[in-house]
Amino acid sequence: MRRASSVKPLVGVLIGSDSDLPVMAGCARVLEEYGIGYEARVLSAHRTPDDTARYVRAAEGRGLRVLVAGAGGAAHLAGAVAAHTSLPVIGVPLASSPLGGFDALLATVQMPPGVPVATMGVGPMGAANAGHFAVAILALGDAGLRRKLRERRQRVAAEILVKSRDLDRRLREIPKSR
Any bridge partners for residue 9, and if so which? Predict the structure, then answer.
């Protein structure tokens, strides 16, 4: 992942392990699509707790407005991040354990009252949705970004309607099973 060039970072993307980079790149791609600057770090709630806390505590002072944390297994990264900031935190549970991400989902979604984490779905779709949700949060204070968000959603809706109109023909082309 790289930071969107020459754009001031507004989103911090934290990844619990570099092995999760291919999945979390989906978040970065969405941010880049909207021209939103971000910075990415590999930080762990368990292996680098002091560095993680230091990064998060300084995030707002560096101009970050949203933090995204992706982790698998015990997945305490998003919760550890939320414990050190009042910025919005978006958690992405990752399927890196034998439980297929269910453990990460529960660890991310079950936060104590007063320390919320917005939890996305497990894996690549969740990572992309974290990017979209970060855009929606930032769009609250940016009319241009709200317009881009609406335009993208309208474009996606139009693409679905085109696919729907063509569905009868496509169904007829599928070979019948015996």
Answer: 37
